[in-house]
Amino acid sequence: MRSRKVQVMVIGFFIMWTFITYYVLLRTSNAQLSRKQQQQLKRLVPEALAEQSKGLQLTRNLIEFLKYKYSSNEQPGTTTTTPRISIVAAEISNEIPAPESGVKATAESKSTPSQIPTQTHLANGEPVIPILVFACNRVSVVKCLDNLVQYRPSVEQFPIIVSQDCGDVLTKEAIQTFGKQLTLIEQPDLSDIVVLPKEKKFKGYYKISRHYGWALNTTFQIGFDFVVIVEDDLNVAPDFFEYFLATHKLLKQDPSLWCVSAWNDNGKANVVDTTRPDLLYRTDFFPGLGWMLTKELWQELSVKWPKSFWDDWIRHPEQRKDRVCIRPEISRTRTFGKIGVSNGLFFDKYLKHIKLSEDFVQFSKINMSYLLKDNYDKAFLKQVYVLPLVTFDELRRNLIALDGPVRIQYNNRDQYKRITRMLGLMDDFKSGVPRTAYHGIVSFYYNKRRVHLAPNANWKGYDLSWS
């Protein structure tokens, strides 16, 4: 009984402290200030909101801890296992019954009238390409939005639409500080999601998938031909917009392409050619993390959109259908979001080391036809399999007599994983496809030379059992 009273007192203290701090912040922001003071306040708002968010999160964490301490029914010594994130989870989630009609949104949910710009093409016929930013409860979304606003070449051609889930007030206020520079839409369905017991720890992935489905439907129904998706924890490169402006036509020209991504999964500074920021590749692996899709692709995917783990689902052969993406040598996005539903998976080892391009490449002045399937396959595949075959040890010790690109061969899954780990590349597979691979070939830069880690010449295709 005494513990219960302590619990209530502690929770009450933190809630009272939170609201008092918030009230003081509001009073300060509403006071009559000089222009100079207003400018200073505007700069301080994101920091104040961030501190406020930390306070709220601390309260939530404390509540969860106390619930666990006093309400847990688990027996001492028991352990729980974490289910593997895979395409299977998305399929199993279909066994969960959908909420009954009329119970879709909570009392706190509200539908936000869409204020999305309705112009889909410029006067010169060029398409309007909205940047759809997915946000939830990160006040640090201002870092992402600052970047986008800073580098955006045209407000008319690249409207920024921020779609917010979660209903977090502080994050919403942070987004609204950008005023008319962007449009804010809010996910109306904030209801809880019923999941299987073994998927409970991954409920966040179910909410993300629901949010993606709603936001993409809402945006594409305006009539846009293309949309670029950006998460709230991404910084973008100076030529981010130029990159998509130059590549969007490829998605219409080549039916074997289904996305253009700004991300290189193996984009760490020591394995990319920093002298070639203009270099682009085709890849069988769906990279995400700043990517463009077409209206037609969304029409295809939306009717079967999964309830969870949409990115694993989209990489499955049934969705990919042997289609590929364009990706850069040097990433045009970089993530700063270590904390999230993935709990920092891969962040310290890989993601925080990804190099963000600092150059501005005028991609729109480059002939992109080399990326079309017929042109690319003839040149790329022929080039790789006539290169000198070397071992990893020869590469590492710089014992290769010839200059220029080389090839390292792998023959099975274990051999591939062993080589990539020694090279510092990502070693995992999704639906049998290695990250950045094209026809099984993973290209990177090492000891000042281009290297292609490739299967043998009679490669038969990706093996799902390698995942």
TrEMBL record:
Region (Disordered): 100-119
Protein name: Alpha-1,3-mannosyl-glycoprotein 2-beta-N-acetylglucosaminyltransferase
CDD domains: GT13_GLCNAC-TI
UniProt organism field: Drosophila albomicans
Keyword Cell membrane among UniProt keywords: no
Entry similarity comment: Belongs to the glycosyltransferase 13 family.
Origin superkingdom: Eukaryota
UniProt xrefs under Pfam families: GNT-I
TM region(s), chain numbering: 6-26
Topological category with respect to the lipid bilayer: Single-pass type II membrane protein
Cofactor annotation remark: The cofactor is mostly bound to the substrate.
Classification lineage: Eukaryota, Metazoa, Ecdysozoa, Arthropoda, Hexapoda
